[in-house]
Request: fold
Amino acid sequence: MVARERTGQSDYQEERIDPRARFAQMEGPLSEKLYAQMRLIRRFEEQLLERFDRGLLVGTTHAYIGQEADAVGVINHLRAGDVVFSNHRCHGHYLVWGDKPEALAAELMGRAGGLVGGRGGSQHICDGGFYTNGIQGGIVPGALGLSLAKRVRGEDAVAVVFIGDGTLGQGVLYECLNMASLWGAPLLVVLEDNGWAQSTPSHREVAGSMLERARAFGMEAGAIESTDAEAIYTHFEGIIEEVRQSVRPRLEVIHTYRLCHHSRSDDHRPAEEIEARRADDPLPKQRQRVSEERARAIEEAVEARLFEAFEAAEAQAQPAVEQLDDPLLRGMPGPQT
Amino acid sequence: MSQTVLESLNQALHRMMQTDERVHLIGEDLLDPYGGAFKVSRGLSTAFEDRVWTTPISEAGFVGVAIGMAMGGLLPVVEIMFGDFVLLAADQLINHGAKYAWIYNEKVDVPLVVRLPMGGRRGYGPTHSQTLEKHFLGAPGLAIVATNPFVDSGRLLETATRYDRRPVLFVENKKMYARRQRPIQGGRCEAMDARVSPGPYPSVSLSFGSFEMADVTLVAYGGMAELAVEAAERLLIEDERYCEVVMPTSIQPLEMDAIAQSVARSGHLVVAEESPGAGGFGAEVISALPAAAWAALRAQPQRVSALNLPIANSTALEAATLPDVDDLLAAMRRVLPTAASRSATG
Reply:
């Protein structure tokens, strides 16, 4: 088998997804746009969990319920050419980035028309500069490498990697903070501190200061404690531009809360704690900024869109087993020169 | 005089960086005047300052960075100082780099090369002398290529870097760096008949007689290649038996054609590797033999490998642990029982 030589940069292509431009083109004021996106994420996750309960999906899923303000606050500032590396809890990030609930639903249901043809499922998706993997901490080097490749190629792009408080236990993260600072990488590490690493509370897994960990490497670091989408959106607007302009890495912590279980049926958190945090639910907070009439219109549109998305996904075929092949054989290079 | 393996690799890196600006070199202590622990990277940081990334001691981190760079359109070559340290990057290689092209449904390539100086016989002790690539055998999406002095090591590295779209573990052997390459010309390599299989990562077959006369097939790769040739020469001199040495460079996927054809001719098989044998290369070769080769076998295949122990610092203990020419000869005599009797009577 003869494969083509890797020549020039022409064979590196990605779909040009531009969340910032799409967000700018959405109708209505900021409050409505943010609410519409968050409502889409919330209802997507709820419908997903409901389908799990009905046995329509296999494996596991890590819902984003309660953290929607982070995704809309960060990713709406990213533009074509930027990179997101996300993690096991990636649906919310992706829906803001790619805005394709039908392709995401198909992927989660293991269908041929899914984002990666049913190969990746919930934790391993890819779409035009958006990548995820299910290994805690292991995604950070890849994000750093992508940010450096962009810099080398002369693009003024930013790479954003989403980690959680649990990721702070992973050594490879610190290797990367060190190299990112040494080498001047346009990398933004967004740490979504939702208080729990699966079933382990932060105070049992994180010693010392989250911010000082980054600052020890000479990085800028900051934090916002909020579930207010508009506050987070405003907070990150300048930060992402600063990373882009300065070509320096930065760590930004969002102290938030996960209102749902970690994955499925594994929640042993104190019920009173969860109850207390429902007051911080970002969704009703944002809904209050929207007129009742507009809110209802948005909700109806979201329901219709998700109904179609899941229906279309369910109607799709499973991927053809014939496409299972050996990448080693397929990837053999051409003849030696 | 031919080049040493070290010179061949170093010149290939210079050549590639000169002709393709996507090639970047990443690893520890790469800057001149040091130029890397085994000097394969010498001169590169002087000539290509912006494309040689000398790193902190962070194998998982910088292998992962190289994966990201490869996804981002560059052609990174990583140098692991001692191949032993690649285990620190196993998660990056197996759970990240090797998987991405497939799980992302071929939306990305990861054209990465990770160079691994492997092997003992230099007294570096238990954590700096191992041959560990067998632990990566069977990781889907990861190619393993091992060079030896009978191929052009630099061209092999160039193929892996510029032409291969997969992540490639490129296995070098520390003892081999100072050895001169032993080129094959006109079907001959010095006093031996030689065959080179087609394809980007050739298998080289050598014989002191004609290939049709082979009594036994000895399969060896990497650092075992020259020992195997030495054993073949001694088998001829001492036992008057012919050994065909087959040296694959594509370890994963395992290139079996030349091996299978030789076994079909010789009817006897010995497989050699520098690592402990369990779960390793030799087991793969034997189990991958096609039916025709199995049918030709007239004795149970033999496996030569290191003792299942860490590698000691002491020269005597290290030598006893690693397989040597005597071990190869003994194994060939086990599969060739008449040879032993002839030797005893002769």
